[in-house]
Target: PqqA peptide cyclase
Amino acid sequence: MTDAPLALLAELTHRCPLRCPYCSNPTALTGPGEELDTATWARVFAEAAELGCLQLHLSGGEPTARRDILDLVRAAGGAGLYTNLITAGVLLDAGRLAALAEAGLDHVQLSVQDAEAGSADRIGGYAGGHAKKLAVGRLVTAAGLPLTLNAVVHRQNLDRLPALIDLALDLGAGRLEVAHVQYYGWALRNRDALLPTRAQLEAATATVEAARAAHRGRLVIDYVVPDYYAKRPKACMGGWGRRFLAVSPAGRILPCHAAESLPGFDFPNVRTSSLRAAWEGSEAFARYRGTGWMPEPCRGCDRAEVDWGGCRCQAFALTGDAAATDPACALSPDHGLLALAVEEAAGAGEGFTYREPRPEPRRAPAPG
Ligand code: SF4
Ligand code: FES
Model:
């Protein structure tokens, strides 16, 4: 019998005013005309609660780009789900935030691209975005909503980690996620411009340890060593099909937000399948669930039920085989690919290939 999932990630839309070069959306974005309507999302939220989910993450793209966001928050609350809004913030103001709180929103996770406005706006590809985010962060706490600040970190902002921690404290955030870029999709295209150096990583780890001790009881800092410097992989999504499911803007039911990057899958869709049928009965969710699918060296490894073989999307992105051991593991025969990538990135420039809705992405100039 399959355990119930803990959380549903609802990717309401791929529309977003920002163009982050590490965006976790697929490189082939879904257009607005293909998005699920309000009633279908409301049914999906009810099904998630019935399946056993406790948390709902409303994400995108930018979820507040949906004109029906208040109806969606109300539907989620009505289904009994704890609702977290994952937002870039730039479409919010005091009125919309008050309305979201009134509709039953439980928590806001606000992204920042850097602690310094010029760099933040360049990374997000959105002029004036950083100042707007700071204002919105203050409005979130003023509205009485708990705030998590999410800082995706990489070579071009990691040196300002102390300032990012100060920013989280200043905004009254209870939690700061220091999230190293995950390299698939858009981020893989920009890997050379984003991979941090080992010296940066060591400094950041020391900064986090000191800040955790200094701000205990006031700020929780989540921090995971980036895969490219790890000896063992993370348990991506808590293991394939074990804890989480995601629904894409077009309704595809996925074991993780990046699963559409994997070829050879026929993912169920909420238009024709219930979440329960997908979770309990689909081949897509069963394929890498548990340990039975594992190759050597995962098979029989004492960490097989700790990290579940790592990340399938990263394994595919780096080796072309989604069933391979995640190369982040030092026991993987492909582990050397990571050191090679770090070496290549060391001599690379800082220009980005920005996420674009359509048509094909264009190159941006390097800073300065
Ligand atoms: Fe994890 Fe597989 Fe590496 Fe063992 S061999 S630590 S299960 S990735
Ligand atoms: Fe898809 Fe890790 S992101 S399994």
User: Anything to note?
Assistant: Residues 236-237, 240, 256, 258-259, 311-313 surround FE2/S2 (inorganic) cluster (ligand 2) (CB under 6 Å). The beta strands are 7-11, 55-59, 82-87, 107-112, 147-153, 175-180, 220-223, 244-247, 253-254. Residues 358-368 have pLDDT under 50 and may be disordered. The radius of gyration is 20 Å.
